[in-house]
Write a structure and sequence with these properties.
Belongs to the gluconokinase GntK/GntV family. By secondary structure, this protein is α/β, with parallel strands linked by helices. It is built from eleven helices and twelve strands. The chain has a seven-stranded mixed beta sheet. Bound molecules: adenosine-5'-triphosphate and D-gluconic acid. The site of adenosine-5'-triphosphate has 18 residues, from α1, α5 and α7.
C-alpha cells in the first residue's frame, strides 16, 4: 500500500501526471491545490509567493487526508508541490513508510513555456522563479522518492514511474484481485476541492464562481481521471458505464469539507459536474454546513481568526493571539503542537495566566509568546479555550 505524492514546482505537470498515474493504479487522486485556503489562492494569484506559514496548515490538511487513505488500506495519489524537505516531512507525518514522492523535474524555460500556454489557472508564470528558489529536490538516499524528467510526454513519465517496485507491486496487487487476473478496470477517482461560498471574511470568493449556484461549493469525488474522459460517475445502482455523455445525466458527488474533512453526498447534472472540473483551478475551499455555521457564528462575533492544526491530535485551533502592541502573532512556522498535546511540557515555560493578549510571558504554551488561552480548539464541538477535550 502506498500513497504517491507527485511533487515539483508549479507547472511541472503534477496534475497531469497524477491523473494518469491514478488511472494506471486504479486508485483515487487528489489535487493538493484544492486544499489551499482562499487566502493562499488569492495570494498566489496576486503574484506573491506563499510562505512556510501559509503552507504548513495546508500541508497538514493534505497529510490528514492521506492518512485516511492509509487507515482505509487504500492507495492514492496526491499532486502537491511539496517543495521543501520539511514540507514533505509534514506530508508524510505518521505514514512515512507508506509515502512515495515522485518528483517531476525539468528546465526552467520548458516549465515557463508550459505555464504561459496553460489557460485559466490562478498561478502566474511570474511566480515560477520563487518556486525554483524554494525547491529542495528530494534525495533518494534520504527520502522514498523518484526523480523523473518531464521533457517527455506524460504517458511516458507515468510508465517510468510505474517501474518503481512499490508501484509495480501495487499494480500487480490490483490486477490479481481481479477475476481472471486481468488488469483492474477500476477507474481513478478524482477528488476536487472546490469553491467557498460560506465566506471567511476575505471577500474574494465571489468572482471565482458559485459553480452551481446552490451555495454549496464542491469538493467532489467522481470516477474520472480527467475531465476529457468523462464516464459514468458513481451513484448509479446499475454500475454501468455511460458511452455517451448526457449533460442532464445525474452524477453522484461526495463533497468533502475542508475543515472537518467529513463528506456528504449530493447528486447533480453532468453539466454542473463538468463545469466544476473546468473551474477547479480557481478553487478555494468548501465547508460543510456544520463548519459553515460555526464559521458564520464566529464571523458574527467578529472573529475571522486563522486556524492552525496540531500536528499531533490534528485538531484545528483558532489562532488569535496578538502582540503587546496589538499586532496579530503570525501563524507558527513548521509543525505545531497544541496545548492539550504538549501542555505539561510547554507550560513549564510560563505561567498559565495568559489572557490572550500574546504577551511575552503569560501562559506561553506555544513557546513563542502565545498564551494557551489565546487559542481555541476549533475542531472540538465544545470550543473549549486552551484545552482540547477531544484528546
Ligand atoms: N509531459 C508533458 N508534456 C507536455 N505538456 C505537459 C506535460 N505535463 C504537463 N503538461 C502541460 O503543462 C501544463 C502544466 O501542467 P500541470 O497543470 O499538470 O502542472 P502542475 O504541476 O499541476 O501545475 P500547478 O502546480 O501550477 O497546478 C499544462 O498545460 C499541461 O497540459
Ligand atoms: O507550494 C506552493 O507554492 C503552492 O503549492 C504552489 O506550488 C501552487 O499550489 C501550485 O503550484 C499552483 O498551482
Amino acid at each position: 500500500m502506498v500513497v504517491v505524492v507527485v511533487m515539483g514546482v508549479s507547472g511541472c505537470g503534477k496534475t497531469t501526471v497524477a491523473a494518469h498515474l491514478a488511472q494506471e493504479l486504479g486508485c483515487e487522486w487528489v489535487d493538493g491545490d484544492g486544499f489551499h485556503p482562499q487566502s493562499n489562492i488569492a495570494k498566489m494569484r496576486s503574484g506573491t509567493p506563499l510562505t512556510d506559514a501559509d503552507r504548513i496548515p495546508w500541508l497538514l490538511n493534505i497529510n490528514k487526508y492521506m492518512k485516511r487513505w492509509v487507515a482505509a488500506g487504500k492507495p492514492g495519489v496526491v499532486a502537491c508541490s511539496a517543495l521543501k524537505k520539511v514540507y514533505r516531512d509534514v506530508l508524510a507525518a505518521d505514514i512515512r513508510g507508506q509515502v512515495l514522492f515522485v518528483h517531476l523535474q525539468g528546465p526552467f524555460n520548458l516549465i515557463l513555456r508550459r505555464m504561459k500556454q496553460r489557460q485559466g489557472h490562478f498561478m502566474p508564470a511570474a511566480l515560477l522563479q520563487s518556486q525554483f528558489d524554494a525547491l529542495e529536490p528530494p534525495d533518494p538516499d534520504v527520502e522514498a522518492c523518484i526523480n523523473l524528467d518531464i521533457v517527455r510526454p506524460s504517458g511516458a513519465i507515468v510508465q517510468q514511474a510505474m517501474q518503481h517496485p512499490r508501484l509495480q507491486a501495487l499494480a500487480k496487487g490490483s490486477s490479481s484481485n481481479n477475476d481472471g487476473g486481468e488488469r483492474s478496470t477500476v477507474e481513478a477517482k478524482h477528488i476536487i476541492v472546490g469553491v467557498d461560498h460560506g465566506g471567511d471574511g476575505n471577500g474574494d470568493s465571489d468572482d471565482d464562481g458559485d459553480v452551481d449556484g446552490d451555495g454549496l461549493g464542491m469538493r467532489l469525488v467522481s470516477n474520472t481521471a480527467n475531465a476529457g474522459q468523462q464516464k459514468q460517475v458513481g451513484g448509479n445502482d446499475s454500475g454501468e458505464e455511460e458511452e455517451e455523455e448526457d449533460d442532464e445525466a445525474e452524477v453522484s458527488m461526495e463533497l468533502l469539507c475542508s475543515e472537518c474533512l467529513e463528506s456528504s453526498h449530493v447528486r447533480r447534472s453532468l453539466r454542473e459536474h463538468r463545469r466544476s472540473l473546468s473551474q477547479h483551478n480557481l478553487a478555494t475551499t468548501w465547508k460543510c454546513e456544520a463548519c459553515t455555521l460555526k464559521h458564520e457564528q464566529q464571523r458574527q462575533h467578529g472573529d475571522v481568526t486563522p486556524r492552525v492544526v496540531c500536528s499531533m491530535c490534528k485538531n484545528a485551533w483558532n489562532w488569535f493571539p496578538t502582540t503587546a502592541d496589538g499586532h496579530r502573532v503570525p501563524l507558527p512556522v513548521g509543525p505545531w503542537i497544541c496545548p492539550s498535546c504538549e501542555g505539561p511540557a510547554r507550560r513549564r515555560h510560563g505561567s498559565s495566566s495568559g489572557d490572550g493578549d500574546g504577551g511575552d510571558s503569560a501562559g506561553d504554551s506555544a513557546g513563542d509568546g502565545v498564551s494557551a488561552a489565546a487559542l481555541v480548539c476549533h475542531t472540538s464541538s465544545q470550543h473549549q479555550q486552551g484545552n482540547n477535550p477531544n484528546v
